[in-house]
TrEMBL record:
This is HTH merR-type domain-containing protein. It comes from the Bacteria. PROSITE patterns: HTH_MERR_2 (PS50937). Residues 60-122 form the HTH merR-type domain.
Amino acid sequence: MYRMVTTNLSLSAPLVTAGISSIVSALRKTTPGGKSSTKTVPVKQSKTMSIGVVLERLNAEFPDVTVSKIRFLESEGLITPERTASGYRRFTESDVERLRYILVTQRDNYLPLKVIREQLEAMDNGYVTAIVGGSSSEPLVSPEKFQAPAMTRLTDSDVAEKAGVSVDLIADLVKARLIKPDAAGFFTNDDVAIANTAANLKTLGFDLRSLKSLGNAATRQADLISQVASPIAQGKSDVARQQAEEMAQQMCSLVVSMHASLVKNATREQLGY
């Protein structure tokens, strides 16, 4: 099945949105003098694919992508796959390229979904360049660093061995609530990182009380993030929790990056360098 598409595009406005918006199916043809001409060309109907096939195609470049993530992006209005009569999602090649653009922009530019949506809308409306939001500076820590840790079953001895510290220090950190075992008494790799960092700070003069104050500061910052993300997680949407997790990861990245800059500036001011 073929359908007819009429194009009338000049050289001064290249199809920068090809592969992202529906304009990808238009084919440009110009005269030798550089002037645009109108030509009717046949365009083959795009094949569609299931969400599982889309996931397979994206996983090599984006291993953290899940079906829930794709559904979440759809709920946010960033992609609009077709639906079959029975309700199944069907994606075109253009949808896949649009997803790839979203994921690359999130990963490399750390832009919030609101800004990415504005960029996509600009492309869909035929702008040559996307809208660039905010500063070009990147957070010191990417949002991906704040994903839930992989399931582990580390004992206190395991944590001590991996972190290169004593079991006594692990006990002190648990007492200070800097690390916390789960209901079964096991720890995560994040606890290993905390223990290792705590040991390094102790060698530089930090005592347990000082370390505990760092933990209290982190808890206060987490409370601020939870105040924003928790109401979203309690929504009735099927992707409410996914949406809250995405937002929390972005906020963690920005809060930690801002905190690092504030600490750096305050230290320079206090020490006069």
